[in-house]
Design brief:
- The complex is a heterodimer.
- Chain A is mainly α.
- The termini of chain A are far apart.
- Chain A contains 15 helices and no strands.
- By secondary structure, chain B is an alpha/beta fold.
- Chain B has helices at about 10-25, 40-45, 60-70, 85-95, 115-125, 125-135; strands at about 30, 50-55, 75-80, 105, 110-115.
- Chain B is globular, with a radius of gyration of 14 Å.
- The chains are: A mainly alpha, B alpha/beta.
- The interface between A and B is medium-sized, with 25 and 20 residues.
Amino acid sequence: MFSFYNYVLCCLFMLFFSSSLYISMYCFLPDFKLSNAYNINLTCTKAASIISSRSMDFPSTQFVPSRTMGTYEPIHQIGMWGENFKSIDSPNISPSMIVDVANKLENESETTSHELLAPSGKYDQDASKPLDKIQRRLAQNREAARKSRLRKKTYVQQLENSRLKLIQLEQELERARQQQGLYAGGALEVGHLGISGAVNTGIAAFEMGYERWMEEQNKLICELRSALNAQTSDIELRILVESGMSHYLELFRMKSGVAKADVFYVMSGTWKTSAERFFSWIGGFRPSELLKVLVPQIDPLTDHQILEVCNLKQSCQQAEDALSQGMEKLQETVSATLASGQMGQGTYLPQVAIAMEKLEALVNFVNQADHLRKETLQQMSYILTTRQAARGLLALGEYIQRLQALSTVWANRPREPA
Amino acid sequence: MQEAIPYKSQMAARSRLHNFLEGAVNDGGRRLVTNGSGTSVTKLVLENAVIVFGRRGCCMCHVVNRLLLGLGVNPAVCEVDEGKEEAVLNELSIINSGGIQFPAVFVGGKLFGGLDRIMSTHITGELVPILKEAGALWL
């Protein structure tokens, strides 16, 4: 049974002779179009067809032409394949080429096999030995193609993983750079590259969210500014104030989410600029400090309002003191737990485990601090009129913008060469 | 307040002063111990104008205490041991027909809330009148 692969290999032999036949072809075949000469492959295929139509004196050139041009494509690709035959394991070979060839072969073997009519059995015996070799080589080719396809797949997967790791590493590096003064030499950050994927996702999501929040915040500030300058009605101002307030609530929601993922991230204030971090108290601003900054901007206040604001300042201060003392106690507890037992033997897993439990309270502290900020903000909105509240929100927004500008200028200040 | 809080005014004042001084030396409040039995806990709740239940060494409980001390209140603090937590919680929920979490603050014999509520009411200025009403503050 004349197999397709024999057919294919015959074509290979054809190609070896095709170039020498080219000129003779040209002479013998007036209908041989010159334009095809530029397309070597087409030349080959045409030559093959023409050769087959004539009686051949080439050994083992058993070849049945097919009516459709489509079957000649595999020949073209097999030609390339044959050339790459020897260097199939070279890394320079584009796997796609081999894949294409192999795929097309497999796709078209069905279509071509049935078109191979009248296989001539008598040629088999003559060509059996080389045909065996040929078959073996073809099988090897198939194997090689399959292997290279698998290799390509694993390579691509590795690339994707490396890309993700690179992004994570870049984020870590950014954070470590920003925290130079804050953490002990950034070694802690570099040390925990083994952060779980969930934590990193939480942090990455928060950072993206915060960027968007900041853009939205700047827009709100601009709107407030123009509204106050333009003497808009109280009703419109109320809408702006409401959206400003709910925008802050949105930020607190985001913070509480990321605090569950990594409370140290929130405590370090990495997502903020350096000047903002300078004022950081349990993951944000001190409400009493902000009140001190903003109240003079909201003048004039009625006597009643002045009294209420004074009370609010005092309550804030007391609440902050209580939380600060709680934090001190937490530090003492964690420190005492870690330092318990004999130190110096290098075994400390039980202490670390207990300290971990104690440290969970830190999430509560961050939540309580944010809760205090929220309550203070809302109490101010009750005490103040709409216009005053608008001025207050504008002042708060601009104060933070000034802090951010300070950070940028500080970072870019001309430094003396070390 | 209509509840019968069994105070004997002179004795109470003297003991309060004594306890306040004591409390100033410790890190807050009068320390009380409970064995988790029903009557003991209920008694504590009723006997004290302000009482804070919390786990031993809990930092949030510490925050509540410092805040109340800062206001001039001398809260009774009941530190619950780990083993007895559940019993005390159960007992307190019976008194209160509701869920309770530590730290839990009882004012005037009734559940007031946790740290959240203390903070919110303090900021809005409602906490001090409530404490005065309960007799925890008398200035």
